[in-house]
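quick one: flavin-adenine dinucleotide bound model?
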Amino acid sequence: MLKQSLLYLSQSPTAKRMVTGTPVSRQMARRFVAGDTLDEALAAARALNDAGLSVSLDYLGEAVESREEAEAATDMVIRILEALKRDGLDANVSVKPTQFGLDLDPDFCRRGIEMVLQRARELGDGEGEIFVRLDMESSDYTERTVALVESLWADGFQNTGTVLQSMLRRTPDDVERMIRLGARVRLVKGAYLEPETVAYPDKADTDRMFVEEMERLLDAGKYPAIATHDEAIIDHARRYVWEKGIAKESFEFQMLYGVRRDLQTRLREEGYNVRVYVPFGESWYPYLMRRLAERPANMMFMAGSIAKESGIGGLGRPLAIGGGMVAGALAALAWRRRR
Ligand SMILES: Cc1cc2nc3c(=O)[nH]c(=O)nc-3n(C[C@H](O)[C@H](O)[C@H](O)COP(=O)(O)OP(=O)(O)OC[C@H]3O[C@@H](n4cnc5c(N)ncnc54)[C@H](O)[C@@H]3O)c2cc1C
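yep, here:
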């Protein structure tokens, strides 16, 4: 319930204005976001590389409303690629199709992504192309994203792959599509609010499907990424590859910047490839809300502080006690601001 409310608020402009205006949420964002600028992101990537961890950089932004915004995102992603090459970092890039204007015009979006893939190819310079992954957004975009990867591959852009979400009922078919294509898949549980018609309402089903799809990708996929902080699933993966004799070099674990650094390091020390997803940029609001939805304890702390800063401190205590009230308080704040 709280998770659903937070995911709903992640799309609310009023809640966005309220949350981004408070120092405590900026502080909270800093836990999950490497900084506002590319230089800060590169410094974070360097530090992770020094600890033996690979990186995927994500310039935050989604659902752009103008071509200018999409073009600015394209320019920035190309700057990231050039900086990765210049600095010799062990890193690739993740992008969101709606950041390139998928909602505005699919052809325009595709042209932007092609420009990025082309530049990533040139910069590979015989040492292997830089890989650019299309992140997966809500189920409204799943078919378009999977089909986009297929069509880019058909046109020779094979330095791209995507993300599949085990919470979606359609994912086993998408896993087979990506295996047939030979494209890399990052398997995740899914971070968006979805209707029961397309997604499992029960988390146990999402977890069960994650394990099934993970095994299939480990058996037949191209360098799959197992992207989770769920230790039970990670242990299952470790046992599975050991029993099946699957080489550690043939897949990677992925985790988010700011989440379970201890586990990232431990897996690396055990000889697994580990990549950390490092977001940066000023458009951190929806990203932060999705991270809070994954772990309500973070949210309770933040909502209590926002309530205090907004002058309705009386709400602070109930917020700290009742998780379900937190999102309600934010909605109340959003309503207060509208008046
Ligand atoms: C590298 C990477 C890329 C991703 N890309 C996408 C994408 O493109 N599209 C998409 O829909 N989703 C994406 N996600 C998010 C994913 O869908 C999940 O929402 C997220 O990973 C949390 O689920 P979990 O697998 O860690 O398992 P959960 O069962 O949610 O969590 C397991 C444990 O991990 C810890 N944990 C999980 N999340 C947090 C957090 N935010 N803060 C603190 N602790 C936490 C907790 O200890 C929790 O008990 C990505 C995740 C990763 C790791």
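DSSP finds 15 helices and eight strands in the chain.
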